[in-house]
Design a protein that fits this description.
By secondary structure, this protein is of the alpha/beta class. It is built from 24 helices and 17 strands. Helix 12 packs parallel to helix 19 and helix 20 crosses helix 24. Strands 7-6-8-9-11-10-15 form a 7-stranded mixed beta sheet, with helices on both faces. The termini are far apart. Helices cover 38% and strands 15% of the residues. The chain folds into 3 domains: 257 residues, Thiamin diphosphate (ThDP)-binding fold, Pyr/PP domains (Rossmann fold); 155 residues, Rossmann fold; 121 residues, Rossmann fold (3-Layer(aba) Sandwich).
């Protein structure tokens, strides 16, 4: 049995192979991905589904001169392995190692950073138009859009523009009918009918004045290569529709595509997931999901909304029990927010659950459609703070900063699961304005979190410990690190809970009773919680010493949350050292 992959470090070596040997290379590439991800963890199913396409693209096109963009980026493992990074792939998503997504400063073959979805068509069109302007008419520009990204509004915007250009653009739709969860929406139904042959194939794409071909079997490498070669000579914008199976080549990944999107560690030979010792604590997302169902049973006006993350956000529990009141709207954060606003105008109580990093994509809607109109939408921001191995594109470290400047918007960060439950309960009691509740990825700190609901007073902080001249003000789950760091130290600790409105009554007391104030947050230092405290001090002419701790003014890369906290001195040991110096 030949070992072709062993001798391939770049597409130059790949193109020296005989085409008849490429199916064997595809098998080797799949095995390589499976063996590494089985022990190192990461995204699995998406990259397995595009192995043949990956090989075909680098075989037919002259990358990196021809520009290739992967959307969404977790499809790109095979691409990374074939482009000078095979020997480093074992470091994928680990601190100091390869990024889990395409990254421009990592490789010349990564022409565009793609951590969020639906951006590839716009970026590739921009590159194609630039080539036209510079007179480079032979250069190819290829966007591979998959995992439900085609349904994102920005993808339609890109196609709409492409159709009125003669740019040398090829859009390849990797149609596997699933993102992280199964795809939803009318476009998904249309594509399903195209595959069945019950729908005229070219209505939508041809209507946009884009040449359409397909659908073809994306696992038939000879067919894919033949079609790519043909399309190289077709002028103007083109659209190739290929059908793939997410998780192709690993039986369990094909049969359970949701779990094997990112399965954690598993047995590479059998495909069976290696069971972890179950935690005694519950994930914050599950606390949210179960609490929402509990509240919705009591309040018929409650609805749930998520943009393509029912499993990740745990809205799936409400979708299972109350399918007519829980909505997965696909990769469409802008729509999710304004949909919630529309519902709120009619007296419904929408819990709009969006990852913090994805809420950035709906900023205009938060301002204009919700806050300006003072509509009581309840934003539940999962994955706030540092999220770990997904890295810079996924850290939710900007929400406090970009939300704090918006009028009418309450901002709350629970320090534990009980606080999360209680603020969810409070929010649906009849708030007359929107609220953003941000909480982290991972498990909480309380075993028996399902306690009777208690109403929280809006804008009220709590004192967790009384000390002497030094006071630490924390927001959210950073309270845990601080509580451990100040153990046996005479330091006051306050959980401010609300970034907006601040508990100014308590703040006046804190500033009068303590000489030194330290603020701690897992958000950007610029414009965040600490900035709010500095503004309070300046406005009230306090001269206390104030030190602001948080995420520095740089993009934090990937690694475990513990490693990343240590790198920016927010871990327990670093905090304790600092507090001792300040005492």
């Amino acid at each position: 049995m030949s070992d072709f992959l062993k001798h391939i470090n770049s597409p130059k070596e790949l193109r020296l192979l005989n085409q008849k040997d490429l199916p064997q290379l595809a098998k080797e590439l799949r095995d390589f991905i499976i063996n590494i991800v089985a022990t190192k963890e990461g995204h699995l199913g998406a990259s397995l589904g595009v192995v043949e396409l990956t090989i075909a693209l680098h075989y037919v096109f002259n990358t990196p001169e021809d520009q290739l963009i992967w959307d969404v980026g977790h499809q790109a493992y095979g691409h990374k392995i074939l482009t000078d990074r095979k020997d480093l792939f074992h470091t994928n998503r680990q601190i100091g190692g390869l990024s889990g997504f395409p990254k421009r400063d990592e490789s010349i073959y990564d022409t565009f950073g793609v951590g969020h979805a639906s951006t590839s068509i716009s970026a590739a069109l921009g590159m194609a138009i630039a080539s036209q302007i510079k007179g480079d008419l032979k250069k190819q520009h290829i966007a591979v859009i998959g995992d439900a990204s085609i349904a994102g509004g920005m993808a339609f915007e890109g196609l709409n523009h492409a159709g009125v250009t003669d740019a040398n653009l090829l859009v390849i739709l990797n149609d596997n009918a699933i993102g992280i969860d199964p795809s939803v929406g009318a476009l998904k139904e249309y594509l399903t009918n195209v595959k069945k042959g019950t729908q005229r194939r070219n209505n939508i794409i041809h209507a946009l004045n884009i040449d359409y071909s397909g659908p073809i079997d994306g696992h038939n490498i000879n067919k894919v290569i033949s079609e790519l070669k043909r399309l190289k000579s077709v002028k103007g914008p083109k659209f190739l529709h290929i059908i793939t199976t997410k998780g192709k080549g690993l039986k369990q990944a094909e049969e359970d595509q949701v779990t094997y999107h990112a399965p954690g560690k598993f047995d590479a030979s059998t495909g069976d997931i290696i069971s972890k010792t179950p935690s005694e604590y519950t994930k914050y997302q599950d606390v949210f999901g179960h609490t929402l169902v509990e509240l919705a049973k009591q309040n018929k006006n409650i609805v749930g909304i998520t943009p393509a993350m029912p499993t990740g956000s745990s809205l799936k529990y409400m979708m299972e029990q109350m399918p007519d009141r829980a909505f997965d709207v696909g990769i469409a954060e802008q729509h999710a927010v304004t949909l919630a606003a529309g519902m709120a105008t009619q007296g419904l109580i929408p819990f709009c659950n969006i990852y913090s990093t994805f809420l950035q994509r709906a900023y205009d809607q938060i301002i204009h459609d919700v806050s300006l109109q003072k509509l009581p939408v309840i934003f539940c921001l999962d994955r706030a703070g540092l999220v770990g191995e997904d890295g810079a594109t996924h850290h939710g470290v900007f929400d406090l900063s970009f939300l704090r400047c918006i009028p009418n918007l309450i901002i709350f960060a629970p320090r534990n699961e009980v606080e999360l439950r209680n603020i969810m309960y409070t929010a649906q009691l009849g708030l007359q304005q929107p609220i953003a509740i941000r909480y982290p990825r991972g498990t909480g700190v309380i075993v028996n979190w399902k306690q009777p609901f208690e109403k929280i007073d809006i804008g009220k902080a709590v004192q967790l410990k009384k000390g002497n001249s030094l006071a630490v003000l924390s927001i959210g789950t950073m309270a845990k690190n601080i509580s451990e760091a100040i153990l046996n130290l005479e330091i006051s600790h306050y959980d401010m809970r609300f970034v907006k409105p601040l508990d100014e009554t308590l703040l006046h007391t804190i500033f009068k009773e303590h000489q030194t104030i330290v603020t701690v947050e897992d958000n950007s230092i610029n414009g965040g919680f600490g900035s709010a405290i500095l503004e309070f001090a300046a406005t009230n002419n306090y001269k206390n010493t104030i030190k602001v701790l948080g995420v520095p003014d740089t993009f934090i890369e990937h690694g475990s949350v513990t490693e990343l906290q240590k790198s920016i001195f927010l871990d327990v040991a670093s905090l304790r050292l600092l507090f001792n110096e300040l005492l």
